[in-house]
Amino acid sequence: MVRYPKEEKLRNVMAHEIVIRGGSLVDGTGAEPVHGDLAIDDGLITAVGEVDGKGKQEIDADGHLVTPGFVDLHTHLDAQIGWEPTMTPVSWHGVSTALLGNCGVTFAPCKPTDRELLAGMMETVEDIPKHAIMTGLPWSWEDYGGYLDAIEQLNPSLNMAGLVGHCAVRFYVMGMRAVEELATEDEMKQMADIVAHSIDTGAFGFSTNRLEGHRLPDGRSIPGTFADPRELEIIGKEVGARNALMQAVGADDEVIRRMALASGNRILFSAGGANEPGAGKRVTARLDELCDGHDITAITQVRGSGFMFGLQGMLPFEGETWSALKKQDLAGRLAALQSDETVAKLVEEGKTETWIRFDRLYYQGAEPTPRYTANIHDNMAAQCKASGESHAEMFIRISRETEGKALFTWRMFNQDMDELGELFKSKHIFPSLGDAGAHVSQFIDAGWSTFVMSHWLREKQLYSIGEGIRRLTSGPARVIGISDRGTLEVGKRADVNVIDFDNVTELHPEIVHDFPGGAPRYIQKARGYKATMINGQLNLLDDELTGAQAGKVLRHNA
After folding, report:
1. Which of 19, 32, 348, 399 has a CA that sits 20 to 30 A from residue 468's CA?
2. Geometric angle at alpha carbon 90, from 141 and 77, rounded to 5°
3. Which one has a higher pLDDT value, 10 or 265?
4. Residue (of 142, 144, 124) closest to 133 by Cα position
5. What is the pLDDT of residues 159-192, one digit of tens each?
6. pLDDT, averaged across the chain
7. DSSP for residue 227
8. Which helix (H) or strand (E) holds 229?
9. CB 170 within 8 A of CB 191
10. Is residue 162 within 8 Å of residue 100, measured between CB atoms?
11. Do strands 95-100 and 70-72 pair parallel, antiparallel, or not at all (unpaired)?
12. Is the model's pTM score more than 0.90?
């Protein structure tokens, strides 16, 4: 049995606040598990190894992994924190630190006259209801530091790090000209100064968005989509001078290279493309070329993802009867399906063309845990062909059999799980991109970290345990620029998970109506988390939140 040497212990003969006893310690550095104990005092890890002193509270970790808290590189919890400081669903999945402000869309900087404009943009881009945003946040700030001050007062359950968004910065400098016009040299300099000030007051960096399909309520692409790359270079120089991060979505390789050269520092971007045979190796080769000589990290969804359909959420068919069904709540929809006449109309209307491709739609199953890993050929179209049912007939039958709980994933991204596994072997890409807090009624990938544990580590053994945990902890912490957490070391902040590795898994998603105004969102719980500690306080115990709100608003260089 391997143990940590005695020299790594601190205060091990006195009582500790918490002792995690007899677990398999995975320290987050990439090292493999070793048996040992871990002690926590005053929010810090104070002993690692053989802890002799008793804890005021002891957690039996026998047979479990003890890991650093997971670091989520891609969330949009910027709004949700205003009314739900427990930060579900990610707080059910071992996440201790979340990065906000991705994809260029943030609520700061913001002039008082632009609040509804930024809220409306967040609604159309990220499916976060504008009413919830306007009523659920205090809107007491103008600059980014003020935004961090405001969310600090909300006492979040998790640690939050933020990026300042290009869209908000452009609006602040250019007004409505920001949407379609190029910035002048002076305006570029103003933007760079605002980004610099935002980082100086706590932002961990800057984010931008070049996806043409991300649009304002009036249908135009969001500010920055078509900005001259020189604008990003001028901003990048200020970001790099502060050892901060630049994040991008929708940027092509040339723009990413220019950002990397300008900042000379860390770049994070969203990738993907595991959609057909050979794609994994092709994307990996592209990443090797792109990242050569630069500190560039890509992230992608951990499984096939896009939209989710089911009787409790979005419906995949169109027509008069389907439109009437969409207006009903779940109970009303189930009642409607008891009518043979209604069902006949739905089946007939279901024969018409829809934007949904049923060869990309996958049933998540009726077992206790969702089935996310179906072979690319085991889709709804193939199943209908085998059963002789139409798409609508199968959807209705399964919905009735499951009392409306059945859900179907439409794989817009990463359709081929085998190719995705090839992609994740690259040292340049991390499994991530859960989008927590966004697209709340469209899909849910917020349980990404649990899926990595259950599928990629336990079932596929794609990584060793040590390397897999590194990619969930110290790896993403380094990308953000966080140095005081992410590993199990004496003196580090006590963000710690105790995980039943043999049984950890996601549970089925479900729709709830707990956003301000009763707006719907998907939630998804997990099984197998014995404990999650945030800054030394138990945030979750035996898969249930404790109500603690011990998270910190982290600030760059603080």
Report:
1. 19
2. 20
3. 265
4. 124
5. 999 999 999 999 999 999 999 999 999 999 999 9
6. 95
7. -
8. helix 229-241
9. yes
10. yes
11. parallel
12. yes
